[in-house]
Prior knowledge:
This protein is an alpha+beta fold.
Amino acid sequence: MAPDERDLLIATIGNYAGLKPASLALMLDHCSVRTLPKEAHLSRIGKPDSMEYFLLEGVLHRYVDNELGDPVSTGFYLGKMVLTPHFARTIAGKSIFNVQALTAFVLAEMPVKVRDSLRYSYQDIQGFGLKVDEQELLTSLSGDMAHRSLGAKDRLLAFRDKYPNLENLIPHSIIASYLGITPVSFSRLRKELAGK
Length: 196
C-alpha cells in the first residue's frame, strides 16, 4: 500500500471511530488496495462477494434494475466512506445489489472472515464496526423517510444538501433514478431551482 493510500485509509477509518495504534496497524495490514476505472462494477446481484470495502477516492452508486431492465440508483458512496457492511449487502455470500463506479476509484478491501476475526478479538475494532453499522442504518432510514415524505423538488434539495457538488460529477439520469423521477422532470426541476 502506497503512503498516500495508507493515509486515505487511516482517514476513512477515522471518520467512524478512533482505533488504538495496534488495532489500526492490524486493520491496515489486512487490507489490500486496488484502483478501478469509471463504469467498472465492484459487485453484481447474485455474484459472490466476500469482502468489506473502504472507498478511499471516487464515487460509486448502488443500484437494482427495474422491471424494464433500467438501473434504479438506491444510494451513493463517496471517498473516505465504508461501503454497506457485508452482512447487509449479501445473502448467503452473494450480492443483493450492484455497485458501479461513476468515476475512477480507489478502494481498500479486507476479507470478511478476517474482519470478523479482528472484530471479535479487539474491542475498539468492534466499536468501529458498530459505528459503521449505525451510520448505514441512519443513512438508510433517513433516505427512506425522505423518499416517502418529500416531493420531488424537496428530494432534490435534500440530495444537494447531502451530496454537495455530486450533481456536477455524475450523470443526471442516475440522480433522477435515485430521486424517483424521470430525467425530463429532473431537468425541469433544475431549471426551476436555478431561476430562483
